[in-house]
Structures are given as C-alpha cells and as structure tokens.
Amino acid sequence: MLREATGIRKIYLRAGRTDLRKGIYSLQAMIQMETGISPLEEGTMFLFCGKRPDRIKILVFEGDGWLIMTKHLIGGNRFQWPRNSGDTLNLTREQYCHLMDGFTIDGTIRHISGQNPSE
After folding, report:
1. Which of 44, 55, 56, 114 is most deeply buried (CB count within 10 A of its CB)?
2. What is the C-alpha separation between 119 and 107, in angstroms, rounded?
3. Model confidence at 24, in pLDDT bands (50, 70, 90)?
4. Cβ pair 105, 95 in contact under 8 A
5. Is residue 3 part of a domain?
6. d(Cα 58, Cα 45) in Å, to the nearest integer?
7. What order do you get walking across the sheet with 55-61 strand by strand?
8. Whether the model pTM is above 0.85
9. How distant, in Å, are the alpha carbons of 13, 19, 37 from that of 30?
10. Residue 29 counted as domain residue
11. 94: three-class secondary structure by DSSP
12. Structural element, H or E, at residue 85
C-alpha cells in the first residue's frame, strides 16, 4: 500500500531529523511554518525521519481527515535519508520508489526550503 502511494499527487520529504513523537498538528504546523506549503492539499504526502534511519513517519491529508502512519523496517534495513537539516524536498514518484526500496535519492530533487547544496 505505502510503496505504491496510490492517490498521492505530491510527495515532500523533510530532510534531517524530525522528532517522531510529534503528532499530526505539530507536523502540520512545522510544514506550514518552514515551507509555506499548505498541508491541507488533498493527495499530498509528507515524509519525516527521526534519529534512527530504520523508521519514518508519513502524514497525508485525505480531504476529510488526516492519515498518519509509521513505517519501521526490520532486519537491519535502513532508509537512505538525506540529512541536510532544514531542507524540504519535492520528490518525484521515481525518487519516492527508490527511497522505499532502500536506495539513495539522486541529486535531481527540487529543494523547497533551506540551503540548496548546489548553490
């Protein structure tokens, strides 16, 4: 289900570490304040990773309410999470699939906020 991201139109990743104890409204406020992106856009997914790269938190607004999920990898598997703190990245579907499959994301990600490493 999560791998296919059916119905998802936009995917944003918050690079660096996020406190995964935060709930829906704290994550929503953080998105709004840091990027200016409205988290209330239906079909938009936001991805967060904490200190441990074997788990992520996913936030999606479905139009009539919020969906929040946690994915915890097992067997020593880890997400190849970008650690440029403060950046919000706009992922393509292909980049999202690479991330979910455990691969790194290439340098074609569009930076929304924070420092762009190519600048």
Report:
1. 56
2. 13
3. very high
4. yes
5. no
6. 7
7. 66-72, 55-61, 44-49, 10-14, 88-91, 110-113
8. no
9. 13, 11, 10
10. yes
11. helix
12. none
